[in-house]
Amino acid sequence: MSAALLFYAVLFVWLVALPALVIWLFLAILRAAPMLWQRFKELVGPLTSRLARPLVGPWRSSFPRSLAFLASRFDPRAPWGLAATIALLGVGVGAFLVGDILHHMAIAERGALVTLDARLHNSLPLVRSAPMTAFMLGATELGGPLFLWPLSIGLSALAFARGKRRLAATFLLAIASASILSYAIKLLVSHPRPIDALIHARESSFPSGHTLGAAVVYGLLAFAVMTSGIRSGLRRSLTLALILLIVSIGISRLYLGVHWPSDLLGSLAVALSCLACLVFFLQYPGRITRLEALSSASSTRIAGMVGWISIAAGFLIAAVLFGRTRMAPVGPPAIAEALDLSHLREQLPEHLPARSEDLFGRGLDPIALLLVGTRDELGAAFQRAGWTPAELPTPDRVVREVFVTADRHADPTGTAMPAYFANRPQTLTFGKASRAGTKAVTRVWQTAYCVAPECRILWVATTSIDRGVFRRSEDLRPAPEGETQRTMVVADLATAGAQELGTLVLL
């Protein structure tokens, strides 16, 4: 398996599979908690009561009301019993996670979460493609308030038409609470958005209102499907589709560059807390007299029509907004400073990092080359020297990488695992077939500096051998020394007309 394939497989698990699993487990626990608690009491209740009697006995006479109150908190039949306890626990866990995320966001730039935010965000151009961008634009509209409000009103009206008044009220509470929480937290936190998003967004970044609203509304709808009486196959399929929709909307906000990854984590934590309270309201065993009294034959017929009209209006609005979306141009970093040529011939500038790093800030390969020239000159020189540009890790290319890896041959055009220089992944990657099953890789970054007096762009590069992982022992051969690898690249570029000046290579 190639290192790049493993990297993107792990990233898929983190960003897609794991959030989907967390949402499903949370909804499953909310659904099955009373039954599981009752089963637990039947199995171990007599034993635990026998063991606890010596400990609780002395307190029973002194604090009878307090002990009775605590016991009632775990009674599934009590209106404010086990269901309320589970809701309170969900709120507590969500609040703790949000607080922890905000704490890490408040730490200076050296914080691990801030570094991870920046590097994942800066890696987005690597995976963007026209079809994927169109899909993400459509997904993000399904999480916007102009779609979720008509959808929630429509679902509420349809539930009311079918006599499910508590569910109808819960859908309205879901969209209202998600909107209020999103606005209030944004106002309190005022976290800045990324400045290089593909689409325009005005409000503060934390939390993601689209992700929060989608997780609450679609999560409630998934819970309603899970507890419905429809056949099991359809129930599982609908639940999975709704959970994947939630995850897709969250990923779309990250893909479009309008949110940091930590915004999505915080939104999910807030949404799960909100869902715990909504499920408690939905399953509250007591009667809500005014709500239960709302019924008449004419009102249910009208509600059914309003429901379908409202849902159709939501889809129409989403389609119109999708067609009118304007993309913001995202270009290379602006030139910040012109550097002196004579100084660069001797060493790397002090204010530039000396080596690349991985996603978590651990050191990788040292900077081996300083290159001067335009992007076109750079690409042309490497290709004349026998190096092949690596393809971007778009989803379809990563899938094709699976088959290349299965054939166990080095593909110079194959995607390379990203490395980071000043929190940015490589701008360009070049590969060259090397030993059996391996390839030489040169990663190149465009800096925000140029070389005086013509102000030609300064690039930095690392050289390495990509052996992949999980290969057989006979393929695990020692890599050449870094200086030897650098010498090979410089020699190749010299054959293409480049000029070596100390640490510099002029293209």
Q: How would you state the average pLDDT, rounded?
A: 79
User: DSSP helix count?
Assistant: 17
What order do the SSEs take from the amino end to the carboxyl end, as H and E? HHHHHHHHHHHHHEHEEEHEHEEEEEHEE
Q: Kindly, what is the distance between the CA atoms of the first and last residues, rounded to a whole number of angstroms?
A: 34 Å
Low-confidence parts, pLDDT < 50 over ≥5 residues?
469-481
* SS class: alpha+beta
* Beta content: 5-15%
Helix percentage range: 55-70%
Gross geometry: elongated
Query: What Rg is obtained from the alpha carbons, in whole angstroms?
Result: 29 Å
Largest sheet: 8 strands, mixed
Total number of beta strands = 12
Task: Describe the structure in your own words.
With 507 residues, this protein is an alpha+beta fold. Strands 1, 4, 5, 8, 9, 10, 11 and 12 form an eight-stranded mixed β-sheet that branches. A two-stranded antiparallel sheet has the order 2-3. The protein is built from 17 helices and twelve strands. The chain is elongated and about 85 Å long. A hairpin with a 5-residue loop joins strand 2 and strand 3. The longest helix is centred in the first third of the chain and has 58 residues, at 3-60.
